[in-house]
């Protein structure tokens, strides 16, 4: 053994000089088998780096089972075909010995990918969260972490990740982040939720999600009435709005304008809603009120009759009373 240990380093050098990396790697593995502990593991790791034979990593871990650099490289090799085995190696490396600090983030990312591929969502979340702490400006990783929290219905964790993404997300992603965070905080902080939705709208003036958020409770209460009326008009005009949604937005706008004393604006909005072919009950009731306000009894009667017939068709308890009132007004 003594003569072999002397000869093997010279053999490695000769193989490398001849361009025989596989032969040099095999000589390093032989050298590692003669050593013990971490020294042997380092030689086997060098053998893998030289000859790329995965068996060298097994030798390294036979000699030093907690040798993190070898565990990390074996995890990378196993990731595609054996994600569960790769996860075990990656976690062993993270808890092991001699892992260089600058290699830890990459190993955390590998552990997260392997865990996700193996169907271990909790481990994927844990490792990716640790990676995001180590590399805080990686918005792509934060986006993947948000997806994992979303799938796990972990609303608090999701909100915290979205908070971090506010300063990082770009383009359409920036809009989506603000809308999703707005939705999450709306139940307990509607004022902040409204501000987030306004920020989203500033980034995309035609965002239907932002317009919907700002024109419905509880966020709408934190938008001035005049601004809300303008937002409702914009919502009715966006291409993503269905005729029914556009009509609801216009009816809400008409009601808002009527409450503020702008009867002409309310009339115009109500007419636009009617032209969409939708006649929801609240539009019919509003038409009747507006007609009464301007002294147009026949129009008020027509609207009340249409509302009464709708009530009758829907089996409303007060349908008969509505029909009677419409008849008296005719």
Give an account of the 3D structure.
The chain is mainly α and 330 residues long. 75% of the residues lie in helices and 0% in strands. It has 19 helices and no strands. The chain has helices at 2-17, 21-34, 37-51, 55-63, 68-78, 83-94, 104-117, 121-134, 139-151, 155-165, 171-185, 190-203, 208-214, 225-237, 243-259, 263-275, 281-293, 297-313, 319-329. The longest helix is centred in the last third of the chain and has 17 residues, at 243-259. The chain is rod-shaped and about 120 Å long. The termini are far apart.
Question: Sheet with the most strands?
Answer: none
How many angstroms separate the termini?
A: 115 Å
Number of strands: 0
- Helix- and strand-based class? mainly alpha
Beta-strand level of the residues, as a percent range? Answer: under 5%
Low-confidence stretches: none
Order of helices and strands: HHHHHHHHHHHHHHHHHHH
Helical proportion, percent range: over 70%
Gross morphology: rod-shaped
Mean pLDDT: 93
Secondary structure tally, helices: 19
Radius of gyration: 34 Å
Question: What are its keywords?
Answer:
mainly alpha, rod-shaped, 75% helix, 0% strand, 330 residues
Concise summary:
By secondary structure, the protein is an all-alpha fold. It contains 19 helices and no strands.
Write the layout of secondary structure elements.
Elements: H1 2-17, H2 21-34, H3 37-51, H4 55-63, H5 68-78, H6 83-94, H7 104-117, H8 121-134, H9 139-151, H10 155-165, H11 171-185, H12 190-203, H13 208-214, H14 225-237, H15 243-259, H16 263-275, H17 281-293, H18 297-313, H19 319-329
């Amino acid at each position: 053994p003594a003569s072999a240990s002397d000869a093997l380093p010279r053999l490695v050098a000769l193989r490398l000089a001849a361009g025989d990396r596989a032969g040099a790697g095999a000589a390093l593995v032989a050298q590692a088998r003669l050593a013990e502990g971490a020294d042997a593991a380092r030689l086997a790791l060098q053998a893998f780096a030289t000859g790329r034979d995965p068996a060298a990593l097994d030798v390294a871990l036979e000699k030093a089972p907690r040798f993190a650099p070898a565990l990390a490289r074996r995890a990378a090799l196993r990731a595609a075909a054996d994600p569960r085995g790769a996860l075990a190696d990656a976690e062993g490396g993270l808890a092991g010995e001699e892992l260089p600090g600058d290699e830890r983030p990459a190993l955390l990312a590998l552990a997260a990918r392997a865990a996700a591929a193996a169907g271990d969502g909790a481990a994927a979340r844990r490792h990716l969260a640790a990676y995001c702490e180590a590399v805080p400006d990686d918005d792509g990783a934060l986006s993947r972490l948000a997806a994992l929290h979303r799938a796990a219905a972990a609303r608090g964790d999701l909100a915290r990740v979205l908070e971090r993404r506010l300063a990082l997300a770009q383009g359409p992603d920036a809009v989506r982040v603000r809308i999703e965070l707005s939705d999450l905080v709306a139940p307990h902080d509607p004022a902040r939720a409204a501000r987030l939705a306004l920020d989203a709208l500033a980034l995309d003036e035609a965002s239907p999600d932002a317009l919907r958020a700002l024109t419905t409770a509880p966020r709408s209460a934190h938008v001035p009435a005049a601004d809300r009326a303008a937002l409702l008009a914009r919502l009715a005009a966006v291409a993503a709005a269905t005729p029914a949604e556009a009509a609801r937005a216009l009816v809400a706008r008409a009601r808002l304008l009527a409450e503020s004393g702008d009867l002409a604006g309310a009339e115009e909005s109500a007419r636009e809603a009617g032209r969409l072919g939708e006649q929801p009950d609240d539009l019919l009731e509003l038409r009747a009120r507006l007609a009464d306000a301007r002294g147009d009894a026949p129009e008020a009667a027509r609207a009340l009759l249409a509302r009464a017939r709708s009530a009758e068709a829907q089996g409303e308890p007060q349908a008969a009373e509505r029909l009677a009132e419409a008849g008296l007004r005719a």
